[in-house]
Amino acid sequence: RARSASPGSPPALDGSFLLSPLGGLMGAQAVLGLLVWSLIAATTYHLHAAYGWVMFVSLFFWILTLLFFVTYLLQLHEKFYMIPWPLVLMIYNAVATVLYITAFVTCAAAVQPTSWRQWDYNRRAAASFFACVTMITYGVSTFFSFRAWKGLGSNAATSQVTDHA
C-alpha cells in the first residue's frame, strides 16, 4: 500500500488496489458498463421499453462502480472505518450481479434480427454480449468480496477491531 489513511490526512492513491482482484474487476466493470450503456444509448432505445431497463441498470451501476473505485483508489474507505466496507461491497456486487442478469436477459431477448435498422441490431447485440460479460465480472467480484468480508481466518467483527484499534 502507498500509506494508510488516517482520519485527518489527505487522500493518497493506493496503487496496490489497482493490482488487486477487486481493483482490476472494478476497472473492468467500469469499462464494460460504459460499453453497455453507450451502445444502447446509440440506438433508438426509447422506442422499446425493455431497453429502458437495460439503460437504467447499466448506467446506475456504472456510476456507483466509479464511486466505489475512486473511494478505494483514494483510500477514502479507511477514513470512514465505522462503515463495514467489505460487507457493503459484497452486498453491492451481489445486487449488481442479480440486476445485470435481468438486464442481460432483457437485452438479449429484445434484440430483433429483422430490425429495419441494421446498426441498431448490431449495437443491441453487442450491448447484450457486453452485459453478459459485465454480469460475470460482478459475479466474480461478489466471490472476492465475500472472501474479503469473511477475512482470512477471522470474522468481520475482529477484522474491524484489529484494523482500527
Automatic annotation (TrEMBL):
Keyword annotations: Cell membrane, Membrane, Transmembrane, Transmembrane helix
Annotated Pfam families: MARVEL
GO CC, any one term: apical plasma membrane
Record-annotated MARVEL domain positions: 17-150
Organism: Dicrurus megarhynchus
Subunit organization: Forms oligomers.
Key word Mitochondrion present: no
Record protein name field: Plasmolipin
Protein's membrane topology: Multi-pass membrane protein
Family, as annotated: Belongs to the MAL family.
Chain segments annotated as transmembrane: 12-40, 52-74, 86-111, 126-146
A GO molecular-function annotation: structural constituent of myelin sheath
Compartmental location: Apical cell membrane; Myelin membrane
Biological process according to GO: myelination
InterPro entries: MAL, Marvel, MARVEL-CKLF_proteins
Presence of keyword Ribosomal protein: no
Principal location: membrane
